[in-house]
Design goal:
The strands form two sheets. A six-stranded antiparallel barrel has the order 1-2-5-4-3-12. Strand 3 and strand 4 (149-157) form a beta hairpin. It is elongated, with a radius of gyration of 40 Å. By secondary structure, it is α+β, with helices and mostly antiparallel strands. 38% of the residues lie in helices and 28% in strands.
């Protein structure tokens, strides 16, 4: 009690000042309409600022919880998207067998529809990865085509994936010919433009012109005769004047490969065995 009395005596001047100030404010704002309106307007502005500050602090403190809930929801949505994509891919794969046309020359051939999961066009040696492998009947040496034409040959096979050498790879050479002619040459990519390849060793007496169709020759166990490869864009003489080199605009768009067909030749083993025996006789 003594401490309280000492405190009041020590600060009595300030206490008296505050009391008079409060009384003055009450008299000023209570009896004068103009000052009262100014007071309430200022008080409202101060209250708004205080409430905004309180809201921001509350929102900031709740951000951690909100962020965690958003992360959980995003994860759920991502899983839903993945499941929907898987279902969509299965529907597309089922429809892919109808989108890639069947040719009558393929009566000895079967197909496995696959989706391209990786592809390169900007390298020197380009490859294509598909989502079908040994478990789905894919084997090394099978041909790969899409709805527009030949795209490569299977090189490495896993249980559920396989890698094909792309036509855009100088290591791959295809036996091709001008449609309507029995003369054939070797198609090889010159590593210049992913839209073009070169058909080498075409005899000079073969008749052709820009715009003519280039197809597979059928002189291999990989591709049957007549599959689309591209069209003649230009030609020039090779170092040997007896042959031309044809510049071929490739039919497939290697920059946007989607679904492809893996060609299985039911007569391949017998053909290769007989050709091997003939070479060693």
């Amino acid at each position: 009690m003594r401490n309280l009395i000492n405190f009041l005596l020590k600060h009595s001047s300030w206490i008296v000042f505050i009391i008079y100030a409060v009384l003055c404010c009450l008299l000023l704002f209570g009896r004068n309409p103009y000052q009262r309106s100014v007071y309430f307007s200022s008080a409202n502005r101060v209250a708004v600022v205080v409430y905004d500050l309180q809201s921001e602090v509350t929102n900031y403190l709740g951000l951690r919880k909100a962020n965690r809930e958003l992360q959980l929801r995003n994860g759920e949505l991502e899983m839903e998207v993945i499941n929907l994509k898987a279902q969509l891919n299965s529907y597309r794969a089922a429809a892919g067998a109808d989108t890639i046309p069947f040719d009558s020359v393929l009566h000895d051939y079967d197909f496995v529809v696959a989706r391209v999961v990786n592809n390169s066009v900007a390298q020197i040696n380009n490859y294509i990865t598909i989502d079908k492998g040994r478990a789905e009947g894919v084997a090394q040496g099978m041909g790969v085509v899409d709805q527009n034409g030949v795209v490569g040959i299977i090189n490495v096979v896993g249980e559920h994936h396989a890698v094909a050498i792309s036509v855009l790879n100088p290591k791959l050479r295809l036996s091709c010919k001008v449609k309507g002619s029995d003369y054939f040459g070797s198609l090889v990519w010159d590593a210049v433009d992913p839209h073009y390849a070169v058909l080498e060793e075409m005899p000079r007496h073969v008749e052709f012109a820009p715009g003519d169709t280039i197809i597979t020759s059928g002189y291999s166990s990989v591709f049957p005769e007549g599959l689309m490869v591209g069209v003649v864009s230009d030609y020039k003489k090779q170092r040997d004047d007896n042959f031309y080199a044809l510049r071929v605009a490739l039919s497939p768009d290697f920059g946007c490969l989607g679904f492809v067909r893996i060609i299985s030749n039911s007569q391949k083993e017998e053909q290769e065995r007989l050709e091997k025996e003939a070479r060693y006789e």
